[in-house]
Each structure stands twice: as C-alpha cells, then as structure tokens.
Write a structure and sequence with these properties.
Elements (H helix, E strand, L loop, with lengths): L3 E8 L2 H13 L8 E7 L6 H13 L7 E6 L2 E3 L13 E8 L4 E13 L16 E5 L8 E8 L6 H11 L5 E5 L11 E3 L2 E3 L3 E8 L3 E6 L3 E2 L4 E7 L2 E5 L2 E2 H10 L3 H9 L2 E6 L12 E10 L4 E4 L8 E6 L2 H16 L7 E9 H4 L11 H10 L4 E6 L2 E5 L2 E5 L3 E7 L3
Parallel strand pairs: 2-3, 8-9, 22-23
Antiparallel strand pairs: 1-5, 2-5, 3-10, 4-23, 6-7, 6-12, 8-12, 9-24, 10-11, 13-26, 14-21, 15-16, 15-21, 16-17, 16-20, 18-19, 18-21, 19-20, 22-26, 24-25
Helix pairs in contact: 1-2, 6-8
C-alpha cells in the first residue's frame, strides 16, 4: 500500500464512472486520504454535478471529513487505465487521484472575479487602471509556510494571466501549478469541482502548506535555433528590431540558414520566441527561456507579432518544437525534480499537458499518452493523473506563468 493512488474509469453513466474511479484510487491508499483530485471528460457538462457528488460520497466513506476534493471537467483526461477504456464512444471518463499527506495543511478555495469602477490597492486586483479593472476574490490569506497552490480555471470567466502576474508581485514565493479547462462547448460549458459541487465559472484550487514535500517540473518542449539576440525595437507584442536589424528580416535569414527539416518544423508545429529569464547569463540554452508563440508577421513593418509583451533590451531566441526535443526536455526536468534530496522515491504526481502535445506531436507507440507514460516512467510511480488543458500553469525562472504546449507536473515524495 502507498500514500497515493490513481484510477480511471469509463462508463455511459457519469456517476458510475466516478464511483468506479474513486473506489479504485481510494483503495490503493493506505488509510483515509487528505487530498483527492478529480478530472472528468463529459459529453454533458451538467453531468459534472453527478461526478462531484459521487466522488464526495466515496471520500466520505473513508472517514476523513476534512479531506479536500478539487478538480475540473476537461476534454481529455489522463490516469491509470486498468478500470476502463477512456476512449469509449459515448462514455464519460473520470480520473481520480488520491493522496494521504501527513503533516500537510490543505486549504481549498474558490476564486471569482468582478469588475471594479475605481482602482484600489488589494491583493487580488489583476487588471486595474484609471477606470478600474478586474478584482479577484476568494484566495485565503497565505500563511508563511504555504509551499504550493494547485489551480484549475475557466479561461472565459477568470483572468488567469492578470491573477498570476499580481501573485508574482504580492506572493513571490508561492508557486502555482495547474491549468485551464474551458469545457467541451466553449463559453459556459466549463465545470470546476470543489467538494461535492460543480461550478461553471471562476477557478478552484487548494493551498498546500506545512510539511508538504512537493516538487514542480515544467517542460515547455522547445529547442532553440539561431543566435540569442537583443531586442532593439518593440511596441507591446510587436517585435520590430533584433540586434539593430528589422525583426522579420532577421527571422528570414535565420530560417534560411536552417536545414530543411527545421524549416518544416517551424511551418508545421509553429515558430516560437524564447524570452530570456536571466539577462545576465553568459549563455542562454533552451531551458533558460519563457516560450511564447509567434502569432504572425507584419511584412509592411518588417515586424513579428508575439503572444506576449516584448521589451527593448530583452534577450530573445527563436525556437521550434518537435517530438524529440519535447520528449528530452520533459525527461530532463523530471530527472532534475527526482534528483533533489528527499525525492528519490516519488509516491504520486499530477499532470497537466497542453492540447497541442496530444494532437499528433508525439509518434506511436505512445502518441497522446506520451507525457503520462514519461511521467510514470521517470518518476517511478503509477499514481499519476491529470488532463489536457488549453493553457498550463507553472513557474519558470521563479515566476508563475500561463503556458501553451507545455507539461506541468506536481510530484510528491513518498517518504515523509
């Protein structure tokens, strides 16, 4: 028996799938769990209420009335597949992950946002300006020993970018891990699970403090091409100049120098820009950059549009994504996490991967299950569960970010 367990079940009835998955996960945990995480792939978003109630009922039977239950509905879920076929046509698929975390303080929360008409000083006001902005409420005041926050959010109703930016300023030592799950039908179809209830908007999560032993691994899955360059001209998200040359012209030159396969990768899996996290490093490798997509080119300005704000003076480097580099980087960050003192034995892990990593990035035999298989193999545990999101949350360079095409992992040590 372990302190961690995970199971996945599929069934035409969502409540039945939830009960089977919960029974399988809880049955592998030695004693009553303290934290249960649920992810569910549902054709009908309203079935999330049944899933939440069914899992809460199974958890209540363990006797720990203080066990926190949190989760989300998602288009595709990941977990132990011995209890059912996740791809079963017309079936609901539910993955349940359970953990006994002695000495860990677990505080569930639900976040919601609302517009304010005047700017004000507050902890959770991610978008304020002269005419007001968006305020976020619901996060408990963090305690000094808070170690990590698990966060699942609806991208349509919750300003996750602004929230993370605000937390980077006010809570610089608190990492957030998780992802976005918008629901199968877009706006209004998201379902976030907390306790025995499902919510259609906002965000849910837990704060983990006290004697929690958790390691974070974030793999952005890109490899650098061309040289590192200084941004010499920029306007917001428009990159105008690189090392004193027009940005688009410099990009064309770099691509022309690459082998045919690299040019094909840039065209098929997309071209990206890495923004250096440490301007003072002597050299910048792929893992030293925050990866942002190249949204498009502006030929009339000889410029490039990037999926984030770019500042003059930053160091940047173009990036491409391919299966080999994405796989190697994931293995590298997992080995680094497991190499920390006290983490030689991992008991369980939670995983959020970007939809783009499931959609044909990795070839057979693993394909869409590549990240799950790699996490289980490299961390040496079968207690892994999660989902494919439309945005992944995790720290890079000591700051929390929202990513794309990324694998974000929260791993827990087996030993206390």
């Amino acid at each position: 028996m372990s302190r961690f367990g995970a199971a996945l079940a599929a069934h035409p009835d969502a409540a039945m799938a939830a009960r089977r998955a919960a029974h399988g996960a809880l049955g592998r945990v030695a004693g009553a769990p303290d934290l249960v995480v649920v992810t569910a792939a549902l054709a009908d978003p309203d079935a999330a209420e049944q899933v939440a109630a069914a899992v809460a009922e199974q958890v209540a039977r363990t006797g720990n009335e203080h066990c926190a239950v949190v989760g989300t509905a998602a288009e595709h879920v990941m977990g132990e597949t011995s209890l059912g076929d996740a791809a079963g046509l017309g079936h609901a698929s539910v993955a349940v992950w359970a953990a006994k975390l002695p000495g860990t303080r677990i505080r569930p929360f639900r976040l919601h946002s609302h517009r304010v008409t005047r700017p004000f000083e507050g902890m959770h006001t991610p978008g304020q300006g002269p005419n007001g902005g968006v305020a976020v409420a619901g996060l408990p005041d963090p305690w000094p020993d808070e170690r990590v926050a698990l966060l699942f959010a609806d991208p349509y109703s919750f300003p996750v970018d602004g929230f993370l930016a605000r937390c980077n300023t006010l809570l610089p030592d608190l990492p957030f891990v998780g992802g976005l799950a918008p629901g199968p039908a877009g706006y209004g179809s998201a379902r976030l699970l907390l306790g025995g209830e499902a919510h259609a908007t906002g965000a849910v999560g837990v704060l983990l403090g006290g004697e929690v032993h958790a390691a974070i691994a974030v793999s952005q899955g890109c490899r650098a091409i061309g040289p590192a360059m200084t941004v010499t001209a920029a306007e917001g998200d428009v990159l105008l100049g690189l090392a004193g040359r027009p940005a688009h012209q410099r990009l064309r030159e770099i691509l022309a120098e690459q082998p045919a396969d690299v040019r094909e990768q840039a065209a098929t899996t997309g071209l990206h820009l890495g923004i250096a996290l440490n301007e003072y490093a002597d050299q910048h490798e792929s893992g030293d950059f925050l990866i942002r997509g190249v949204v498009g080119v502006l030929p009339e300005r000889d410029a490039i549009q990037v999926g984030d704000r770019v500042e003059v003076g930053q160091t940047v480097r173009f990036q491409v994504r391919d299966a080999a580099s994405a796989a190697e980087q994931l293995r590298a960050v997992l080995r680094k996490a497991r190499g920390r003192p006290g983490y030689e034995s991992i008991g369980g892990a939670l995983l959020v991967s970007g939809h783009g990593r499931a959609a044909g990035l990795f070839p057979p035999p693993f394909g869409a299950s590549h990240d799950l298989h790699t996490v289980r193999t490299e961390l040496g545990t079968g207690a892994v569960a999660g989902f494919f999101g439309t945005g992944e949350i995790g720290p890079v360079g000591g700051r929390n970010h929202l990513h794309g095409y990324t694998a974000s992992v929260l791993a827990f040590a087996e030993s206390e």
